[in-house]
């Protein structure tokens, strides 16, 4: 689907998406191959992220993440990195994989040529377009279905897009803990919580 124009933006079949969702919810073996519509699968991924009981970026951190939109340069990235360190491990791991994937989709936004000179169409989904589509599904102020859920003011919408753009563009460095910070954390933990060190070293 990387060459599919408008992936994640073009509409899908609600009936087919619902059928796919029910199959996943029932724990069936769902095979996604060339017979499936790319747009149906893309819509299902967005729906999954939107309807998670606990959003990928916890709602408690919504305001903190949005506030980084007012920062610039290294200060913005440093603050985003510290906020990412606050995510529960399963949220952090899933978000990193999603951001890697979105960066890969964005790399195919422009048209290119294969070795024989034939044109390969781009999907037109730039980082900005992907941030616009995925931002509200990842950064949520309210739970889906709650009062005012989905009713974002313009400032919040713009901030969400900008924050997700930065996350996609810099995911490779934002999730990387510097050796200096690792040593500092391990030194402090050795004094306060030595049992935690083994767990952290396994995750490293």
Automatic annotation (TrEMBL):
Keywords: GTPase activation. One of its GO terms (molecular function) is GTPase activator activity. One of its GO terms (biological process) is signal transduction. Pfam families: RhoGAP. Residues 1-175 form the Rho-GAP domain. The keyword Repressor does not apply. Gene3D superfamilies: Rho GTPase activation protein. SUPFAM superfamilies: GTPase activation domain, GAP. This is RHG06 protein.
